[in-house]
Every structure is written in structure tokens, then in C-alpha cells.
Amino acid sequence: MHELGIVTHVIKTLIDVAAENQLTRIGSVTLEVGEVSGVIHEQILDCWDYMCAKRGPLFTGCKLILETLPAVTWCNSCEKTYPTVQYGRTCPHCGSGETWLLTGNECTIKEIEAE
Amino acid sequence: MKIIELKETFTASNDRDAEELRAYLKEKSVILFNLMSAPGSGKTTLLSRIITDLRGKASIAVMEADIASAVDAERIEALGAQAVQVHTDGMCHMDAGMTREGLLPMDLSGVDMIFLENVGNLICPAEYDTGAVKNIMILSVPEGDDKPLKYPLMFRESDALVITKTDALPYFNFDMEKAMERALRLNPDIKIFPVSAKKGDGMAALEDWLLEETRQFINQLTFAEHILEDLEVSRRQVSQGKVRNMAEALEDLRKRHGFI
Pick from B13, B93, B153: which is nearest to A13 by CB? Predict the structure, then answer.
């Protein structure tokens, strides 16, 4: 399951952060999730609760907060940007298919609340 | 409670493990290739062919990653190559930590190349750095030439694309030119090798590439050469709009190399 893999890696990264900053408890984690990253919010929240319960004291009661980042595509032909979800791979300005996703595929740990 | 701003990718810990693993491989003078594909694309058949063809030229070991079972490892061992089976315990991909665990029991003395057969999946394995030196993606003719459109990340993350089962071309509507064009559009640096592991067509070109990559890695590029190579990649990413500007690309380089 994709979401379980993401949660496993988020937790691994946070264990490193906790060790570096001598943290004993993480109260909340804010994840920035791109609009077209394919991450399903409901599933990642379920996986989060499951892994936190399993991982013990550092993550006890830790909340996962999800923030959505809009997907924006860059057109190489007319050098303009447009919203990806609405228009897909074809540029609405010039009809070109020479387009690249600029943002929207992120899965970033923005910040944590901890002590 | 205090707020700590991180702005780290969720795989930050894995990315560090992967860098460590590459340093370990360099020390051991052995290259690791990560093979990714859908199930049934002919990975084990391709590997069997490579092991047989390169006998006497390169010593090969194989790490088979699977959710369960040891069928593939048995096929490789029958050819006299060292094989270990790694179970991912239900995970849909391999990461650097799991790869390191798989490498530990292997006897790497005299081994030149290790192939990691990643879990059969065209999505998740592309997201996680395994610590491999080169990523190779396999696409078989029966899967269709539209796969680059459906699984773009896999094509972007791969250094080489091997199109297998070309002996089946007459029976499928697979447009080789279209497949290549679509892959190159996503990743202009990708090397493409159409092969038939069954008949041997195209295998020599692929095997020459593998030998050359191994030679380069083992002989070690100088640090400066690595930086130059990375700068070239950054410049290309900027021109393709994958990275917003050179400053951002350099920031990424600085993080990876620790200065600039």
C-alpha cells in the first residue's frame, strides 16, 4: 500500500529529527501534499494512526495535519503556467503538449510541533 | 510545545541512507543496478541471459525483492550466481535500509555487479532511492507503448530503459518509435535498449553499457567530475522547467555535496 510506505518513511525521518533535537514527544506533523501526488488523504490518516500506535512514546497521540498544494504546469512552448487538474498535459494557452509539472507532486514535511 | 520548521521531503532519512550505501558500494568496488518493472516483464529471464553472456567478463550477484516466495532466487542460483531473497513484508517497494539489509549477508569479494530485482510495480519503487548507482526500467512489448504516459515518474527516475520481448513484436500493436519518443520526452538522458533475452537480439549493446557503467563506477570518477556531471544535469532540469531556476538547483547540489 502506497500510503503505508509514505507514513513509514515520514516516521523514519522524524525519528532522526527527534534524535538531533532531543525531542521526547511530537504533538503534530504537518505534511504538504501536492494535488496530483496521488496521496489519498483518508488512507494516509488511517495509516498514520496505525503507525503512531505501533511506534510508541515519541508518537503517542501525534496528529497528522494535511495541507494541499495546488498543481501547476509549465508550458515549454508559450512559457506560461496553468492549473494542472483542470487542463491536464495540454496547454490551454497554445495547445502544446510540451509541458512539465512545476508543483503538485510534493509530499513534504512542513513542520512539527514537539517538546 | 514548540514548532520546528522542517521543509524536508518525506524520504529525507531514506535519502541519507541511500548516499551512505553508495559510499559503501564504492569502497567495496561493486556497482548496484536497481531493476524496476511491472510483474511479468521478464526481469528474471533478462538477468539469466546477462549472467550467462557476461560469464568471464563480470561476476554478478542478484538480490531478489519480493513480497513473499523464493522462486526467482532459485532460478538465478541454478546459473551459479550468488542470489539472496529479500522479503519486503508486504511493502510495495524497496528502500535503502531494506537494500542494505539484503546486502549484508552477501559475500561481495570478487563481485563486480549486483542487480536488485525490485518489487514488480511501476509506481512506488520510483519514489524511493534504494542506494543503487543506476536505475534500470524494464518495459515488455506486451505491456504496450503507452506506459510512459501512465507511469511518468518511473521513466524520469531511470537511467536506462530496456524494452524486452522484442521477438513478440509481430503479435502486438507496439509502436517502438512511439514508445521511444514518449520515454525520451520524459527523460532526454535515458538510454534505450530494445532486446529479446530469449533470442539474444540487442543484448550486446545493453551488456556493453552495463560493463562501461561498472568500469566507470569502480574506477571512480574524481569528485570534480561528479560535480561537473551534476551541474550539467541541473542545467538541463532548469531548461526543462523541472527545477524553477539555477539557484534552486544549486541549493539542491549544495545539500547533496555539503558545499558550493
Answer: B13
**Could you say which architecture CATH assigns to the domain A2-70+104-114?**
2-Layer Sandwich (3.30)
What is the DSSP secondary structure assignment for residue A90, as one 8-state letter? S
Complex ipTM over 0.85: no
Q: What CATH number belongs to B12-220?
A: 3.40.50.300
Task: Provide the residue ranges of all domains of chain B, joining segments of one domain with +.
Answer: 12-220, 222-260
CB contact under 8 A, A113 and B2: yes
Q: Please list the pLDDT of chain B residue by residue as tens digits (260 residues).
A: 899 999 988 899 999 999 999 999 998 899 999 999 999 999 989 999 999 999 999 999 999 887 766 677 788 889 989 998 888 877 788 999 999 999 988 989 889 999 999 988 888 889 899 999 999 999 999 999 999 888 888 999 999 999 999 999 999 999 999 999 999 988 999 999 999 999 999 999 999 999 999 998 987 655 666 677 778 888 888 887 777 777 877 777 776 665 54
Task: Give the list of residues 6+ apart from residue B225 with CB closer than 8 angstroms, or none.
Answer: none
From residue B226, give the alpha-carbon distance in Å to each of B29, B114, B158.
17, 22, 18
Amino acid letter, A108: T
